[in-house]
Design brief:
319 residues, alpha/beta, 8-stranded mixed sheet, 50% helix, 14% strand, elongated, disordered C terminus
Length: 319
C-alpha cells in the first residue's frame, strides 16, 4: 500500500523564500508519493505568482488562494480541507522549519504515536516572539491541559484519522494546539534544529499573538470563566470583610471620627474594575458564540491550482 504524504504550508510574505522551501522538500522527499499544498493567505507581496509558477512546474505542487487574510491557523485548515494524504505534515514558509528534517517527523509516526511535533532546543525567533511562545506554552498548560513536558510548534505531522478529526471542526476560530490535544494523547516531540530567518521578518505581530491566544482559550476552555467566578468570589469576600472592619472601626475605635473617601474610592475602583474585566471576558465568549452561530467561514478559497492532476494520474495508473 502506497502512503501519500500531504505537506501543507500557509504562505504570507514569503515571496522570496517559498521557492527554496519547496525545492528542499522535493529533493528530500525524492520518489515518495506526496503533494505540497501552498496556501496564499492573501499575502500583500507577490507570493501567489510564485505559487502559480511552482504549480506549473510540478504535478505534486498545488495552490490555494484565499479571498482575504484569515490567519495562519485558518489557512492551515484550508489546506487540510483539500489534502488527500495518509500522513499530513505542517510547516512554515520562511525556511526556519527545515524541510530536510521532514522524514524525522514522518518516521516517528509509529504504532504508539499519532502526532509528532518538532521540538527546538534553540529557537531562532526574536526575543519578544520567544517570550510570547513561553507565555502561550504556560497558558496552554493551565487552560487546555497541555502536558508540561510537551512542546508545541508549527512543524508537526499527524496520521489520517487525526487529520479527519481536525477537518470536522467547523468553528470560526481554529486553534491547532487545542484541536491536536483533544484528538488524542499519543503525542511526542522529536528534536529538530531551528534555522535562523534569512529574509524578511515574522508576520506575527503582538496583536496577532493576542488574537491567537484568545482563539485558543475561549474556543477550547471554560477555565477563564471559572477563574473569573473565583476572582469575583474573592472580591466579594474581601468587600464583605472590609465592610465589617469599617463598621467596627466606626462604632468601637473611632466613633467620632469622620469616614475618609480614599478607602471608599479605592474599594469602588477595584471592585468596578474587576466587574468590567469579568464582563469583558464573558462578552468575548458571547461574541464568539454569536459569530459561530452566524456561520462565519473559517476560510474562503478564491482559486485552486493543480488539484485535478493527481486524480487524472491515478485513473491512468488504474487503467
Amino acid at each position: 500500500m502506497i502512503t501519500i504524504i500531504s505537506i501543507i504550508i500557509p504562505c504570507y510574505g514569503s515571496q522570496h523564500t517559498i521557492a527554496a522551501v519547496v525545492a528542499d522538500l522535493t529533493k528530500t522527499l525524492g520518489t515518495a508519493e506526496y503533494e505540497i499544498i501552498l496556501v496564499n493567505d492573501s499575502s500583500p507581496d507577490g507570493v501567489f505568482a510564485v505559487i502559480k509558477d511552482l504549480c506549473g512546474d510540478s504535478r505534486n505542487i498545488k495552490g490555494l488562494d484565499l479571498s482575504k487574510n484569515f490567519g495562519q491557523h485558518n489557512a492551515i485548515m484550508a489546506g487540510l480541507s483539500c489534502a488527500t494524504g495518509d500522513i499530513c505534515v505542517f510547516m512554515d514558509d520562511d525556511g526556519q522549519t527545515p524541510a530536510t528534517e521532514i522524514w524525522q517527523l514522518i518516521n516517528a509516526l509509529d504504532n504508539e504515536t499519532d502526532i509528532v511535533i518538532a521540538e527546538y532546543a534553540n529557537k531562532k525567533h526574536s526575543h519578544w516572539r520567544n517570550w510570547g511562545s513561553k507565555i502561550n506554552d504556560r497558558m496552554a498548560e493551565i487552560l487546555i491541559n497541555k502536558p508540561r513536558n510537551l512542546k508545541m510548534s508549527s512543524y508537526f505531522a499527524i496520521k489520517k484519522f487525526v487529520a479527519d478529526e481536525l477537518r470536522n471542526y467547523q468553528g470560526s476560530f481554529p486553534y491547532l494546539a487545542g484541536l491536536l490535544l483533544r484528538s488524542g494523547n499519543r503525542i511526542k516531540n522529536v528534536p529538530i534544529p531551528h534555522k535562523p530567518r534569512e529574509i524578511g521578518q515574522s508576520g506575527y505581530t503582538f496583536k496577532k499573538l493576542i488574537g491567537l491566544w484568545l482563539n485558543g482559550f475561549t474556543a477550547f476552555s471554560v477555565k477563564p470563566l471559572r477563574i473569573a467566578t473565583f476572582m469575583g468570589f474573592l472580591t466579594a469576600m474581601g468587600g464583605f470583610t472590609y465592610g465589617i472592619y469599617v463598621i467596627l472601626r466606626r462604632l468601637i475605635f473611632e466613633p467620632l471620627s469622620p469616614m475618609g473617601w480614599s478607602s471608599t474610592m479605592a474599594a469602588l475602583l477595584f471592585i468596578g474594575g474587576m466587574i468590567m474585566l469579568m464582563l469583558g471576558l464573558i462578552g468575548e465568549y458571547v461574541g464568539r458564540i454569536y459569530i459561530n452561530i452566524n456561520n462565519s467561514p473559517q476560510f474562503v478559497i478564491r482559486e485552486k491550482l493543480g488539484f485535478d492532476r493527481p486524480e487524472e494520474k491515478r485513473n491512468e495508473d488504474e487503467d
